[in-house]
Design a protein that fits this description.
By secondary structure, this protein is α/β, with parallel strands linked by helices. It is built from seven helices and seven strands, in the order E-H-H-E-E-H-H-E-H-E-H-H-E-E. Strands 1, 2, 3, 4, 5, 6 and 7 form a seven-stranded mixed sheet that branches.
Length: 261
Amino acid sequence: VFREPESPGVCTGYVPCAVGVPALSAERLMRILPRDKTGALLKAADSGFSADRAYEFVRQLLDTDVDVAAILIDTSHPASVAAARSNTELVNQRRQAVHHRKMTEAGFSYGIFAGQLITDLLMASLERTGCRPTFFDVVLDNAALKAVQERQWRDWLRAAGANNDTSVGDVVWTSEQAEPLLLLPDLVAGILLRDAVAGDCQRARQALQDAGRAGRLSIRDGYNIPLPQQAPDAHDVPQSRVSVNGSAQLHNAADDAPPRS
């Protein structure tokens, strides 16, 4: 995920995104998922997901009681690349010292951002409702993670909940076919990236930003967000329905500015 561009002018953007879904809202949220003429669900990169449909989706999403958190990251920025590399090396030194297998840079980095998204979701919920959820499950889109990384992710996500006085229950990986609500963060992330790179979802992106400024959701400006300078120790881990976590990635070969929220 984090690498310097192979040629000048190439910029890569990455948006980890999470959507907190109250159990009673799941059926309503299924109804606002965009579909094509055949009834198939659309993703943000599909040609049938126009700018107008993107805006209508965001408008309907913000009319529900979900919480949203996203982080925009320029993964080709030298500072981001260096931070990802150094933090992964640090945590792997600690793991190696106790004879644990190393983690990949991508797995470690996304795990860190997933934990931050949990915190951001809880703060967004607190801002919106005046209280935090006391318990939630985490459902993530299928990823090519080694078992050791899945175990570490569960520890990190539960630690993120514990640090916010919230209990994290199940942490599972599944597909969008099995859990269509995983499309919610995919669509939000895709809208933000499409507008950052191609500028074709301006109304939808503006609606998300306006909601962020109003405290309705959390969108972090990730132009140059480094990973934490102090990597968490891999072993010092403290012990509504679903928090759905997904991501989107897009590549741009133009001389555009790095993605910003």
